[in-house]
Amino acid sequence: MSPQAKKAAAPALGPKVGEVVERFELEKAWLVDPVAGREGPGEIVVIDGVLESVVWLEGDEAKGVTDKGVVVAPGFFDLHAHFREPGFEDAETVATGTAAAAHGGYTTVALMPNTSPALDEPGILERIRSAARAGGSPVEVLAYGAVSAERAGEQLSAMGELADAGVIGYSDDGAPVRTPKLLRSALLYAGMLGLAVVDHAEDSELTANAEANEGYVASVLGLQGWPAAAEVNAVSRDLAVLADALLDEPRVRLHLTHLSTAASLDLVRRAKAAGLPVTCDVTPHHLALADEWIAGARRWSWEALDTEAAARDPWADAALTAWPYNTSLRVNPPLRSPVDAAACLAALLDGTASAVVTDHAPHTVVDKEVEFGKASNGISGIETALGVLLALVDAGKLTLAAAVAALTTGPAGIVAGWPAAAATPAARKRGLIEGAPADLVVFDRADRWAVTAESLRSKGKNSPFIGRELSGRVLLTIAGGRLAYEDPAAGEG
Prior knowledge:
This protein is of the alpha/beta class. It has 2 domains: about 5-70 and about 435-485, Roll (Urease, subunit C, domain 1), CATH 2.30.40.10; about 75-425, TIM Barrel. It is about 30% helix and about 20% strand. It has helices spanning about 5-10, 95-105, 120-135, 160-165, 180-195, 205, 215-220, 230-245, 260-275, 285-290, 300-305, 310, 340-350, 365-370, 385-395, 400-405, 410-415; strands at about 25-35, 40-45, 50-55, 70-75, 75-80, 105-110, 140-145, 145, 170, 195-200, 210-215, 225, 255, 280, 355, 440-450, 470-480, 480-485. The strands form 5 sheets. It has a 7-stranded mixed sheet. The protein has a 4-stranded parallel sheet with strand order 10-13-14-15. Strands 5-6-7 form a 3-stranded parallel sheet, with helices on both faces. It is globular. Mean pLDDT is about 95; it is low at about 1-15.
């Protein structure tokens, strides 16, 4: 850890997780404020949980301060995560999930409703909230209600009651909304309630028994292909239903989550240009990894495109340094080609995709240490998302400001577009705002950390980054003025 990082975190030593940060001063760090559209050398002071002072340094005072060292940014907002409780507490709980979130720099997390029982009525939401209170973490836990009762795809859930209870939207994630008729009804009802439908875009008939992205890698490895058309068809269906529903209810809103193919992202790009009220997001793993990782490659997706040899032989420089069939790489949607990964990045850069979400999906060893095609889908990714995005920044593919915006104002802006959610804490401005409760993350770009089963706070150890190092060690996370996470080594030396 750099001397500056030690100095940065040491003043916060004292409070326990959940307690108000009485005083924290940080001198000569690199501040990133996506609300103000500004970044540069600066200093902050937090007193009694409030961000009392933000000072931007210039001239001689700013000398030696770069964006390669200690960085201060607003706390991150994950618009899509799974904490598994209730029903699957052996994989994750709200307590372990919030601990993992804080370790990753997140201060707000929106949970998907594919729990057991599904979050299809207010009582389940209260169970999640009670678990969050009992855990003591200040990380804000939000949730989506299910679109359909029991997520069975047959009839609508108690959407009105869920809205009154405080869900931020509706989704049957883990699966798509089953039929166009059900989707249209959900869009209309959600629109009248001022909320959005968040759909997992997948044509299930095309993905039956599918194991990996249809293409060269799947063919060589003998895995059943998962066609891009499954996502493209679903996005086309959803956009057509949205356009039709809009004729009857102008408040309908659709969000398409974890898109992964160039074609589906282009459909959203065209729909947004035509004025349809649709948004979408992408994940760190679809930005940075490609399906060749399943074969044992360990280069970033953009490295696969940056070599002339890759155009002739996709694996010429792939450096197959790991064992194939690592089940932590089995995800839904699957890891795609390097070209699709580049399309995800292009969509983020041009605003087609408004946010990066983790789709944090922890699983037990029992669910993952099986044959590749039988493993449960998902990556435990809320703790590694920052490091993956910083790899893009280090490679010159993304600016630091854009990366921070994708984790903060991007997701908050999506929620702000849902009328009933626009006044909630989820949609608040995520900048370095004087006089507001401190909601921020401090991380050191100069310091790398080893991703190990022991270093992950999540119960889910199903990460493809186990055994690797990532940059951007999180030193401190403050959520709503209270301590959420502090690096245990921050005060040493």
